[in-house]
TrEMBL record:
This is Thioesterase superfamily protein. SUPFAM superfamilies: Thioesterase/thiol ester dehydrase-isomerase (SSF54637). Residues 26-108 form the Acyl-CoA thioesterase-like N-terminal HotDog domain. It comes from Actinomadura hallensis. Residues 130-262 form the Acyl-CoA thioesterase-like C-terminal domain. The lineage of its organism: Bacteria, Bacillati, Actinomycetota, Actinomycetes, Streptosporangiales. Residues 1-35 are annotated as: Disordered.
Length: 268
């Protein structure tokens, strides 16, 4: 792939659990390091493909970001921690050059009976805005990777404005070439953006980086377009916590949460 050619996917599979990150994975802080969305989605894909059991689904994924993940070749491995017919605990590790850069855990559980009466709290999501606005230059951050690989339709406001915020979004490219993204992959690709959508802090003044992400899904999302409403709580002498609700055109399907470090930007 040419250095200047647009990426056709977030990752290129190399076989044996090895993947090469394309420039589309790059996050806003640097073109050399990946956004957490593709990283989380790649780990989620690995969970879904590890000894799948019919009639079960991945209901919760927690990703621990151990260090910045380079836009480079990564190895992903999965193991079963707690096997079972109704509940299984899985763990995954992502390494670069033999060094762990991310770890994740997932609960794969038995699907609820189809005749169960649904109970969903919260109002329905706002309507999908009709037009997509191009992603603007955002305080000098790198917008040519993940941020441009996603199609965003903000509900009011604009990028860079203080949150809380709500957006509809979908990926312009698949996680892996030639594959259709699963509902879990679509949710994880978006969910790590919640602190960017919901932040009430000035990103030009404050360094705000999540150390983890947890996504819980009470059902699988339907359709390409997903809606996320997010907000951040932050305390002096403490840290920040971002919470988000996830929805599709039919209503809510899950929640996301991040723990974030907040600090002043290093002196240039």
């Amino acid at each position: 792939m040419s250095q200047d050619a647009p990426a056709e996917s977030f990752y290129e599979p190399l076989g044996g659990g090895r993947f090469a990150g394309t420039p589309a994975t790059a996050g806003p802080w640097s073109p050399e390091f990946q956004h957490g969305g593709p990283v989380s989605a790649l780990l989620g894909r690995a969970f879904e493909r590890h000894d799948p059991v019919p009639g079960t689904r991945v209901a919760r994924v927690t990703v621990e970001l151990l260090s910045p993940v380079p836009v480079a070749v990564l190895d992903v491995s999965v193991r079963v921690v707690r096997p079972g017919k109704r509940i299984t605990l899985l763990e995954a590790e992502m390494t670069h050059g033999g060094r762990p850069v991310a770890r994740a855990a997932a609960w794969r559980i038995k699907e609820a009976p189809g005749h169960l009466e649904p109970v969903v709290h919260g109002p329905p999501p706002p309507e999908l805005p009709a037009a997509t606005r191009p992603f603007p230059d955002w305080n000098g951050f790198h917008t040519g990777g993940y941020l441009s690989a996603m199609e965003w339709r903000l509900v009011g406001g604009s990028f860079g404005e203080p949150g809380p915020g709500t957006t509809w979004a979908r990926s312009r490219i698949p996680l892996i070439p030639g594959e259709s993204d699963s509902p879990l992959v679509r949710a994880l690709t978006l969910a790590d953006s919640c602190s960017g959508i919901g932040s009430q802090l000035d990103h030009a003044k404050w360094l705000i980086i999540n150390t983890d992400m947890t996504v819980g899904l009470h059902r699988d999302p339907v359709g390409e377009w997903l809606c996320m409403s997010a907000s951040i709580d932050v305390s002096p002498g403490g840290s920040a916590l971002c919470e988000a609700t996830l929805a599709d055109a039919s209503g809510g399907f899950g929640r996301a949460m991040q723990t974030l470090i907040v600090d002043e930007h290093p002196a240039s």
